[in-house]
Design brief:
This protein has helices at about 1-20, 330-350; strands spanning about 25, 60-65, 65-70, 75-80, 80-85, 90-95, 100-110, 115-120, 125-135, 140-145, 150-160, 170-175, 180-185, 190, 205-210, 220, 240-245, 255-260, 275-285, 290, 295-305, 310, 320-325. Strands 1, 2, 4, 5, 7, 9, 11, 13, 14, 15, 17, 19, 21 and 23 form a 14-stranded parallel sheet that branches. The protein has a five-stranded parallel sheet with strand order 3-6-8-10-12, with no helix packed on it. The chain has about 350 residues and is mainly β. The chain has one domain. It has two helices and 23 strands. Helices cover about 10% and strands about 40% of the residues.
Length: about 350
């Protein structure tokens, strides 16, 4: 088995290397101002290639060696094949504006034992695959994604938190401001992390994911929350979402997802079925389908278009999955007071 593992690792390395369609550009900050430059009057760039070059749509752009790159509104539109902040070393990428497209490859925050940080505070990010900590054969990675000021984010194939090796080695951090939106256009959501707190993926609590892939696309969504039942406490950290929306209400933009529970995201409840907690669940389109796949989903608010489908709901005693509206705390209090009122009324009648 050990020999097989080594062969697979080598094959993976070769496959990764083979994906590069053009040159590899390493960030060197040669101008000393930290900005990701388009070609200026003197032909200077902040990359290690010929001074007339900038990473292009067939090139890899790596930020490492303890360096920090800033991509600003003045930079305009840039397209690269693959992007990494923290590739085999420390790297930080600040995007304050502009439009960055990682068109054919992947965007890595931390790769090959790297420590990567992506501070996204403006502009547009479009990528096929987004890995917040990625590595299948190295340990020691650490990835941080900080989202502020409502940038535009679109992911078309996969959003993955944590690496595919041992769960307990994952070091992925996500922070986001309330109202953050991520558009998932045919993208799966995969979570391999076990930390749902402020040093983990607590930022999910402030994110709404909008799935819109069309009728022919069904995306999987990993449920990672500890199943504490249909109570508001499940919305605190616990990999809970601010919002989950299927479709936008426009033609050809239906959203279809299937809940899955592939990974154990809680060490202390290992082996137990997990659940998804959402503040606001929205099915915008009549053709949108939410396939619970026998998993539990708990929500506070529901917007359901006429004709939209919630499928594979398990009911009855001992049900292992289903959907439940979390009652407001005030409602719970009123229910309690109502019960007391009924009891008092009955006692008064018996005395009469």
């Amino acid at each position: 088995m050990r020999n097989v593992t080594i062969v697979l690792a080598v094959a993976a390395v070769l496959a990764l290397a083979g994906q590069a369609q053009g040159a590899i550009f390493d960030w060197d900050n040669s101008l000393g101002d930290g900005l990701w430059h388009t070609i200026g009057a003197g032909g200077e760039t902040n990359w290690n290639r010929d001074n007339s070059e900038l990473p292009g749509s067939s090139d890899d752009a790596w930020i490492r060696g303890g360096r920090t790159a800033t991509f600003s509104a003045a930079t305009g539109n840039v397209s690269v094949y693959r992007m990494a902040a923290g590739y085999s070393g420390i790297g930080t990428f600040n995007q304050t504006g502009g439009s960055l497209t990682v068109g054919s490859g992947h965007f890595y925050i931390s790769e090959s034992s790297g420590t990567g940080t992506y501070n996204l505070s403006g502009g547009t990010l479009i990528t096929k695959r987004m890995y917040v900590e990625y590595d299948t054969w190295y340990d020691g990675n650490s990835a941080t994604w900080n989202i502020t000021n409502s940038p535009s984010i679109t992911i078309s194939q996969l959003l993955q938190f944590g690496k595919s090796a041992d769960l307990d080695e994952n070091n992925c951090i996500l922070t986001a401001v309330t109202g953050t939106v991520i558009h998932m256009t045919g993208s799966q959501f995969e979570n391999m992390c076990q930390n749902d707190g402020v040093t983990g993926l607590a930022g999910l609590n402030n994110i709404t994911f909008i799935f819109k892939g069309g009728l022919g696309d069904v995306d999987t969504f990993e449920v990672g929350g500890e199943n504490v039942g249909c109570i508001a406490g499940g919305l605190s950290e616990n990999f809970a979402l601010e919002g989950l929306a299927l479709g936008t209400g426009a033609d050809t933009e239906e959203g279809n997802i299937q809940l899955v529970d592939t990974h154990d995201n809680h060490v202390d409840t290992s082996g137990k079925a997990e659940a998804l907690y959402v503040e606001t669940l929205t099915l915008n389109d009549p053709d949108s389908v939410l396939d619970l796949n026998g998993k539990w989903l708990y929500y506070e608010n529901l917007v359901l278009a006429n004709g939209a489908t919630i499928a594979n709901v398990v009911t009855g005693a001992g049900a292992t999955g289903g959907i439940c509206e979390i009652p407001e705390p005030a409602t719970m209090t009123l229910l309690g007071l109502g019960g007391i009122g009924v009891l008092l009324k009955r006692r008064r009648k018996s005395r009469a």
